[in-house]
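seq as requested:
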Amino acid sequence: MIRVDLSGTKKFVSGKFDKQAAKAALDMLVNGTGEGNDFIGWVNLPVNYDKEEFVRIQKAAEKIKANSKALVVVGIGGSYLGARAVVELLKSPNYNALSKNTPDIYFAGNGISADAVLQIIQMIGDRDFSVNVISKSGTTTEPAIAFRIFKELLEKKYGKEGAKERIFATTDKARGALKTLATQEGYETFVVPDDVGGRYSVLTAVGLLPIACCGIDIEKLMRGAQAERECCMSQGVDSAAVQYAMSRQYFAADGKTVEILAAYEPAFRFMAEWWKQLYGESEGKDGIGIFPASVDLTPDLHSMGQYIQDGRRMLQETVVFFDETEASLQVPSDEANLDGLNYLAGRELSYINQKAMEATKAAHIDGGVPVTEIRMPKNCAEAVGALIYFFEFACGVSGYMSGVNPFNQPGVEAYKKNMFRLLGKPGY
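struct tokens:
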């Protein structure tokens, strides 16, 4: 379903991609023989997910849609980025402003800004709302603080009994502070699987419940992931995902250690944010790793475009582009033609966007930047599910090719220890 076009990299390739290393990495990922193999449950998740929990997710989403005008999703990192990425890509970055029969969605607990939390409270106002708190442990500082605040608001508004019907906890299946609280209070709970790390968890209850609440068909999302998994498994090193992994590692070895992910749809912005966490947290360790960055094109061509074109030649670029668009809009004709655009009159904006992408690709290649295209058939649930799995699978292979464990994140703990010490947490 996902296609990779490497024609924009050929002039920069003097040898061959390392298929032997890719095959070894692929075998480690598929057979579970590499480091971090206790966190590869996502590999087969599209076909062996918990069907009973999946139905409960759908029922909970219907309940939230029926009794709430707003849903607050409390989580940080992988506990919110994937869901927000899918909602914005499939619905709109302006989802909350649109007329719809589903709840507005607000993401809290991904920072510690008082202004941000108060603004969410103000936007909810007097409306009925529910909370989906997502945390494996329940003790991560940012979401734990936010959950305290919104839990108190719910209990003041509905009482403890009423509040417990509006709190949904996605957490560890057996242990942890949040699991303990959920059991004590009687919250409905969903599981963060033991063998799936946060950044790979969007196709678990972590992402699926908020996504379903926004009216997105999660069955179609899973079908897309299933189809892409089948491509990866059946085609092996010839699959689009492994071709992408080999390409990016080839160019990293050639000194192009910064990868820019570009898209020509504003709705893709948070998918790029999710991608940055996925690749940055998976590969950035042991003093190595490709640095993931992103740009929104064409707007960033008028800012970052200068650096991409003429700056330090450490860049490789990956462009995600849709073959088809849903919307149809043409440039109108203007009698005065003061802006000189009548040559485009009657043209579809999608056609102009395509030509802008092609022109930019050619310019960047001429400027010394290899460009890989990732093509999606269209922006729909199946294609987005496929893209999620594509990026995850490629990340696992790429990480193993580079020689790191793609499924741990030891460096994430460093800031926490310093913060706890400065805040006076006992034991620090």
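Strands lie at 3-5, 70-74, 104-108, 129-134, 167-171, 188-191, 258-263, 291-296, 315-322, 371-376.
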